[in-house]
């Protein structure tokens, strides 16, 4: 079972290509990250109480999403540089 | 409150009402007469300046320019007009009661007179790159799409799409119809943004107005022509102005020093130094603040999609404001970073695929960048080298004044870290990119609003000068402004002979486009000419490099003989000759001899000729019908967005 996910990811990459996969996933992750960051800043702009309330929820998912976003961006750029 | 005595710790004035300069007793004559004189002076002086300027215009003949640029053909009345404006503004900004309408009037008149003169006296839009930008807009308007694989700048198409929309809405034939007035338009847009920005960075209203004047008189970079940079600079100003107006953090940096672990005396000293001017933050509702944030993000998104550099300068300024606890939106730089990274990695792949390695290799080459931006450009004719040195001196002078202003503010008991940080924030980018030798110019531009504010502090509040009667206290500052104004005309318009394009050249290109079938090769002796403004993708444009510019007709013929093309054309224009004269220091007559020599080639036939241009075609054994060229890469110097021409320290 533990090999199913990596194998599926590998198959997906080889079938669709890195660019297509990161484009699709990247757009989803980007929209989520940008939307959540915007929501967080709007909450900050509205006031400290609002920020505390919103940040409590957003911060839980923000870190992994930001990580995913960075991985996707890095892989896309490396794909251009590496032969 | 603003006695201005050097060395004294002067309490900060509040923003409104404006601090009054004490009226010298010797000026306290009949109050009614004085009030009348004060009321009449601005309209009279502004009308006088406009009148002198209007008289000057017919006397300005751009064709007579030498390598010093526009200043070489300006009549005395033009200089008098500028002096009248400068003196009038100087008097107005040091009067006991500020007349804001008059100050706005002076600034608007200055923008129109100085930034708008070329639009009137020249018969076609200046800058070769303006014509290229019109070509991008024409492409979008005609095809309804962009072509990032064909042209790098299409990877950031926001400005061009907006331009196409404007051309459509206004029913114009081409963006060229409005391009010449871009500097005036963008100058007038920058004015309110600057005033809003300044009044939130300093409480002294005289300083605010003086800084605005210094900005416009210090902006010799001239990146306000019809280009994405001009619009994006406005975006930059508006974003920073909104941040400091509505999202300022009360308390800010000094609050950090109220920490229990910091000794009270140290904390009090630091807090005293770092405490900014008492500027009220406008009261806003939570909904209004949310709306303002959305405005910032929308403008930044527009900037990300329309310019390569500006988003980074905006991000740098936002980071500086957050680090110094000047604004409350601490997460905004992260959001900005995500937006710009997303655009680069998803929307500019066509550009990055060919250039990422080169771009990465420039990181950390600070010395090389500086060399490329300054040292390599000190060449050309003797007069042009004078212009280059004038630009260097002017730039260092503005920065020197800013340094003096910073020290003067410090001496008055205020360590303005925010303004200083915003002023230096653009410079670290020099270590990341040379930007085709233009990064230093862009760094100057983005630091100028804040450098101008610091520089204004050298004369506002007016320093008390020993042995100078109080009534003449403004005189040294006005004299300094006059010197800067004179230098400005040399530095801003120093390349004008090259930047100047004529209707005759435009006409020659029209004839060329009529004659050249799709898929033809169009060759010029340099990239400086008004072409590419329509049917950009129909032809391959090849501007010959400097190495074969003059004296090597065979090299040009070799390029024209390329069998890949059904027909090959050579266009030689006045602007190319000016480029060769100014930037390579050709001896007088060399360009004309070169043109005659090429034209005399038996392999070429003359298609069209007027006073400013010749169009020649290579004679082939057979002249096949033109095949559609489709979208193809340019083989010349057009591919990189890093080679945007404009007034530079030297040849681009």
Q: Can you describe this structure?
A:
- The complex is a heterodimer of chains A (83) and B (652).
- In chain A, 92% of the residues lie in helices and 0% in strands.
- By secondary structure, chain A is an all-alpha fold.
- Chain A has one domain (18-81).
- In chain A, helix 2 runs antiparallel to helix 3.
- The longest helix of chain A has 34 residues, at 48-81.
- The two termini of chain A are 33 Å apart.
- With 652 residues, chain B is mainly alpha-helical.
- Chain B folds into two domains: 25-126 and 180-249 and 335-489, no CATH class; 498-643, no CATH class.
- Chain B has 24 helices and five strands.
- A five-stranded mixed β-sheet of chain B has the order 2-1-3-5-4, with helices on both faces.
- In chain B, strand 4 and strand 5 (613-618) form a beta hairpin.
- In chain B, helix 1 runs parallel beside helix 3 (100-121).
- The longest helix of chain B is centred in the middle third of the chain and has 30 residues, at 382-411.
- Chain B is globular, with a radius of gyration of 27 Å.
- The two termini of chain B are 49 Å apart.
- The chains are: A mainly alpha (83), B mainly alpha (652).
- Chains A and B meet through helix 2 and helix 3 of A and helix 11, helix 13 and helix 14 of B.
């Amino acid at each position: 079972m533990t090999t199913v996910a990596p194998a599926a990811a590998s198959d997906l990459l080889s079938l669709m290509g890195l660019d297509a996969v990161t484009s699709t996933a990247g757009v989803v992750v980007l929209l989520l990250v940008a939307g959540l960051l915007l929501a967080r800043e709007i909450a900050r702009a509205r006031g400290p109480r609002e920020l505390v309330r919103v940040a409590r929820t957003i911060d839980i998912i923000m870190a992994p999403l930001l990580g995913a976003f960075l991985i996707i961006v890095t892989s896309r750029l490396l794909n251009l540089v590496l032969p | 409150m603003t006695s201005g005595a050097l060395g004294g710790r002067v309490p900060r004035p509040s923003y409104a009402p404006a601090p009054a300069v004490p009226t010298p007793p010797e000026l306290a004559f009949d109050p009614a007469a004085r009030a009348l004189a004060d009321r009449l002076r601005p309209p009279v002086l502004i009308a006088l300046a406009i009148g002198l300027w209007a008289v000057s215009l017919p006397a300005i003949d751009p064709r007579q320019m030498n390598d010093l640029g526009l200043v070489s053909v300006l009549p005395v009345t033009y200089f008098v007009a500028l002096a009248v404006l400068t003196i009038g503004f100087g008097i107005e900004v040091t009067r006991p009661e500020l007349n804001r309408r008059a100050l706005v009037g002076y600034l608007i008149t200055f923008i129109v007179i100085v930034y708008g003169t070329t639009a009137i006296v020249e018969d076609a839009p200046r800058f070769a790159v303006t014509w290229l930008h019109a070509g991008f807009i024409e492409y979008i308007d005609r095809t309804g799409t962009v072509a990032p694989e064909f042209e790098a700048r299409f990877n950031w198409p926001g400005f061009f799409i907006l331009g196409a929309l404007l051309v459509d809405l206004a029913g114009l034939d081409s963006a060229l119809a409005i391009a010449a007035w871009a500097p005036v338009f963008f100058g007038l847009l920058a004015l309110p943004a600057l005033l809003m920005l300044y009044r939130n960075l300093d409480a002294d209203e005289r300083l605010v107005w003086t800084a605005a004047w210094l900005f416009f008189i210090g902006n010799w970079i001239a990146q306000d022509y019809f280009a994405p940079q001009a619009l994006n600079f406005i975006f930059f100003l508006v974003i920073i102005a909104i941040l400091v107006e509505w999202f300022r953090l009360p308390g800010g940096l000094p609050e950090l020093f109220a920490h229990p672990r910091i000794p009270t005396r140290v904390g009090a000293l630091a807090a005293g130094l770092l405490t900014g001017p008492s500027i009220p933050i406008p009261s806003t509702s939570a909904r209004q603040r949310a709306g303002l944030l959305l405005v910032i993000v929308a403008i930044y998104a527009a900037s990300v999609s329309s310019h390569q550099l500006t988003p980074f300068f905006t991000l740098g300024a936002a980071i500086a404001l957050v680090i110094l606890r000047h604004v409350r939106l601490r997460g905004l730089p992260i959001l900005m970073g995500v937006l710009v990274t997303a655009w680069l990695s998803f929307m500019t792949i066509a550009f990055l695929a060919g250039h990422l390695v080169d771009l990465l290799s420039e990181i950390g080459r600070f010395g090389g960048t500086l060399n490329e931006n300054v040292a390599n450009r000190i060449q050309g004719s003797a007069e042009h080298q004078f212009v280059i040195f004038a630009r260097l001196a002017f730039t260092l002078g503005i920065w020197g004044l800013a340094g003096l202003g910073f020290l003067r503010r410090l001496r008055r008991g205020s360590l303005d870290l925010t303004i200083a940080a915003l002023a230096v924030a653009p410079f670290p980018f020099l270590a990341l990119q040379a930007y085709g030798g233009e990064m230093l110019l862009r760094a100057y531009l983005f630091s100028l609003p804040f450098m101008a504010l610091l520089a204004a502090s050298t004369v506002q509040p007016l320093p008390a000068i020993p042995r100078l009667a109080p009534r003449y206290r403004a005189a040294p500052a006005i004299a300094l402004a006059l010197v800067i104004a004179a230098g400005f005309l040399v530095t801003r318009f120093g390349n004008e002979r090259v930047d100047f394009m004529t209707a005759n050249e435009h006409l020659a290109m029209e004839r060329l486009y009529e004659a050249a079938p799709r898929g033809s090769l169009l060759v010029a002796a340099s990239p400086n000419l008004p072409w590419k403004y329509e049917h950009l993708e129909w032809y391959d444009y090849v501007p010959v490099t400097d190495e074969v510019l003059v004296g090597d007709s065979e090299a040009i013929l070799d390029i024209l003989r390329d069998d890949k093309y059904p027909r090959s054309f050579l266009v030689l224009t006045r602007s190319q000759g000016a480029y060769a004269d100014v930037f390579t220091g050709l001896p007088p007559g060399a360009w004309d001899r070169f043109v005659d020599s090429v034209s005399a080639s038996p392999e070429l036939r003359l298609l069209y000729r007027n006073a400013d241009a010749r169009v020649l075609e290579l004679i082939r054994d057979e002249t096949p019908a033109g095949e559609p060229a489709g979208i193809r890469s340019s083989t010349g110097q057009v591919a990189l967005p890093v080679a945007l021409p404009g007034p530079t320290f030297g040849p681009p």
